[in-house]
Amino acid sequence: MSLRAHESYGRHGLTPVDRLGVWLSHRAIRRHLRGRNDLEVLELGCGYRATQLIALEPKLKRGIGVDFQIAPELQTLKKFTFHQGTIEETVPKFESQTVDVVMLISVLEHLAEPQFVIQSAWRLLRRSGLLLANVPTWRGKRFLEWSAFRLGFSPKLEIDDHRMYYDKRDLWPMLVRAGFKPSQIRLRYHKFGLNLFAAAKKDDADQHD
């Protein structure tokens, strides 16, 4: 996601702390996609180099990424399509029920209208489709700010762009309001409790927009 208006995450490289966070998120993503292949995956806020999305290439039929800026060399990759722009402006252009997985990895905390984006993710998913989201927790807030503002281990601009932190009690009702049923939502703290990972499956019976 953006560090400032119209700048994609990773545009100027990643710090060691950020690389560790990306690796831990990738492990969580792979865990939930185990046994799933030939997928059409949409990542909203994929970052400048779409690291998480491209890492899934062996599992993909098609990968779609959205962010402010995309590295030009990624536009030549066969299985991938990238859209440059804001998430809020881009998602209404996609047809309903067209992807198997929507990823929101370290994105919701940057958005002014996170509920709209979660609702849009539900609309875009096919039946049995999966939303995967990673967000920083309120416990993580103190550590992330200390790391960025005091130690300089993470970009200050990124943390200054955070609009919200989430615990289970914050994210769960947002998922339910979007249309995900409680029985299909899994929430787990990870990254030493500094982050919360959500996997929400669209119910087989849900066909309406």
Explain what the structure shows.
The longest helix is centred in the first third of the chain and has 17 residues, at 16-32. This protein has a 7-stranded mixed beta sheet with strand order 3-2-1-4-5-7-6, sandwiched between helices. It has one domain (16-201): Vaccinia Virus protein VP39 (Rossmann fold, 3-Layer(aba) Sandwich), CATH 3.40.50.150. It is 32% helix and 24% strand. The chain contains 7 helices and 7 strands. It is of the alpha/beta class and 209 residues long. Helix 4 crosses helix 7 (168-178). The protein is globular, with a radius of gyration of 16 Å.
Helical content, roughly? 25-40%
The average pLDDT score comes to 91
**The CATH top-level class label:** Alpha Beta
From the 3D structure, determine the CATH topology: Rossmann fold
Which helices and strands occur, and which strands form pairs?
Layout: H1 16-32, E1 39-44, H2 51-55, E2 60-67, E3 80-84, H3 87-90, E4 99-105, H4 114-124, E5 125-136, H5 138-151, H6 156-160, H7 168-178, E6 185-190, E7 195-201
Parallel strand pairs: 1-2, 1-4, 2-3, 4-5
Antiparallel strand pairs: 5-7, 6-7
Give a brief rundown of this model:
Helices cover 32% and strands 24% of the residues. The chain is an alpha/beta fold and 209 residues long.
Structural features:
209 residues; Rossmann fold
